[in-house]
Design brief:
- It is a single chain.
- By secondary structure, the chain is mainly beta.
- The chain has two domains: 1-63, no CATH class; 67-142, Immunoglobulin-like.
- Helix content is 0%, strand content 41%.
- The protein has no helices and eleven strands.
- The chain has strands spanning 2-4, 32-36, 55-61, 67-69, 73-77, 85-87, 94-96, 101-106, 112-114, 119-127, 132-142.
- A four-stranded mixed β-sheet has the order 5-11-10-8, with no helix packed on it. The protein has a three-stranded antiparallel β-sheet with strand order 1-3-2, with no helix packed on it. A two-stranded antiparallel sheet has the order 4-7.
- The chain is elongated and about 80 Å long.
- The two termini are 49 Å apart.
- 8% of the residues are buried.
Length: 143
């Protein structure tokens, strides 16, 4: 966040419009969104009503890869099973990104696994800008 303080003159009956300078954004990628805490602010002078003491600027970079949060080990408890092999029920890996993310698991959900045998999983996330991130964890089905 960028914080910009705007100073203006006003009295009880008069508010003097002020031109608010937009912040300069320097980034390694030109694809970002700049938004302020005052939705109607633009290049024209803005008439502050005396209740606002600052403008908060938020810059969102759309080109960073997703951030994944994989568990170190995931135990899938399968009570009352008599089989030594089951179809893996993979957990949903949480992610953070500025856009929607597509998750791919390797091996895929439903892969046949042996009870009590660890299986290494790799999760790949791709956001709508093509940025890619990976994480991995152990899956163990417990009977």
């Amino acid at each position: 966040n960028f914080y910009v303080t705007a100073y203006f003159r006003h009295s009880r009956s008069f508010v003097s419009p002020v031109s608010v300078q937009f912040p300069t954004v320097r980034d390694n990628d030109p694809y970002y969104t700049l938004a302020s805490s005052i939705a109607s602010i633009d290049s024209a002078p803005y008439a502050f009503d005396g209740t606002i003491d600052r403008v908060v600027w938020n810059v969102t970079d759309h080109r960073w890869p997703p951030v994944l949060k994989c568990p170190e080990i995931y135990f899938d408890y399968v009570p009352n099973t008599t089989s030594s092999v089951i179809a893996a029920r993979l957990p949903i890996v949480t992610w953070t990104d500025a856009s929607d993310v597509h998750l791919m698991y390797e091996p895929v959900n439903g892969t046949r696994v042996e009870i009590n045998e660890p299986l290494r999983l790799i999760v790949t996330a791709v956001d709508e800008h093509g940025n890619l991130a990976k994480c991995s964890f152990w899956y163990i089905a417990k009977g």
